[in-house]
Amino acid sequence: MRLLHTSDWHLGRAFHRVNMLDAQTAFIGHLVTTVRERDVDALVVSGDVYDRAVPPLAAVQLFDDALHRLAELGVPTVMISGNHDSARRLGVGAGLIGRAGIHLRTDATACGTPVVLADAHGDVAFYGLPYLEPALVRDQFGVDKAGHETVLAAAMDRVRADLATRAPGTRSVVLAHAFVTGGEPSDSERDISVGGVASVPAGIFDGVDYVALGHLHGSQTITERVRYSGSPLAYSFSEAGHRKSMWLVDLGGDGSVGAERIDCPVPRPLARVRGQLEDLLADPELARYEDAWVEATLTDPVRPADPMARIEERFPHTLNLVFAPERSSGDPDVSYARRLAGRSDQQIAEDFVAHVRGTGPDEHEQAVLRDAFDAVRADEAVREVAR
To answer: Which parts of the sequence belong to the Nuclease SbcCD subunit D C-terminal domain (predicted)?
Structure first.
């Protein structure tokens, strides 16, 4: 069976001040063409269809158009909700839409009930694990600890239990929206950490033939059977080095996996340039970036006059200007920036306690801070559901 694996469309999202609707429309057209021309047997979409719980009307219209075009092809589609989606909104009419071959899986408790498709070698069971917010689903799964690993493990237990009841030789595909250990994140994914832990081990998915992951925006292979498709478009300059693509997966009759990357259309390349303004304006090596979307980091010790207007003279598609003046290592601003770089909210809070009090928090205080951050994230998740 040939599968096309994609995720993280984020319909309705802008890139800095650029409306991405035209680029997202072009991607949907490319997706439909690929499904048709590459003889795809099933399409899997692993969450974050929309960028927010209440998407703009134009995004909803584009999604509606995509559903109609996919249904017309007669190729089954299995789709789950991600942490940016409203599971309830995305799942409205799922039963009726399923009759057209578009299978929306947004109910966490139904993760053990697969969509079963067949080819010449027998059945393939597709299990949809929508994004599982631990604080919201722990009771549904009957687990004591509200953590990503705990709830995903409980969901996979249901998957394996159902698979054990099926005919020998039944192959299995799991769609999941999660941060799996070993994956490389970017700046454009929303933090999903709980208790200071965001990732889960890949071994949690043992026992299935292919795992189609969503959430991380870079296409990557965790194992030969566990892969991220990544987002089809770049949504932050941290993705400047990404090759945006989908996975075309051939699932053999014996459960073997072969995978090929299918490139996605690039509306405009991304570039990051860094240096003093006059150097950036004069460097001939930067000519290749003059038609790109640019993030320019200026290192001038004194902020230049009219920097954006001047940088746009050479790089007219500059979207972001960052000031990082070169200073001595003893400068307090440099030291502070270095302390914050790459640190989590929890670590920053612990550093603040140490700065104010002279000693860092003990284990009990660390747990209090962790619980506070988790409570805020859980409250935000509840608000998303309620919208």
So the answer is: 267-355
